[in-house]
Design brief:
By secondary structure, the protein is an alpha+beta fold. The protein is built from three helices and four strands. The longest helix has 13 residues. It is globular, with a radius of gyration of 14 Å.
Length: 84
Amino acid sequence: MLNKKRLLQTFCELVSIDSPSFGERAVCDYITKELRELGITPIEDQAGKKIGGNTGNLYAKIPGNIALSPYSFVHTYGYCRAFV
């Protein structure tokens, strides 16, 4: 079940982090910490170095359950979309 209060709190924490273009390191570190606390190991690529930024793309793989539909999130420059 969706916990709206927790979702709103997480959203507010994320948008309060200063993250100008090419300077999103603090957001990446926040998300990495949260994922690790959930037992998920994120992987960061080197995209930031190639474009002059201070962070790469962050990926996390979570093993699925055959009984559930596949779910994928795609985020690019402020646009996030979930696919079922």
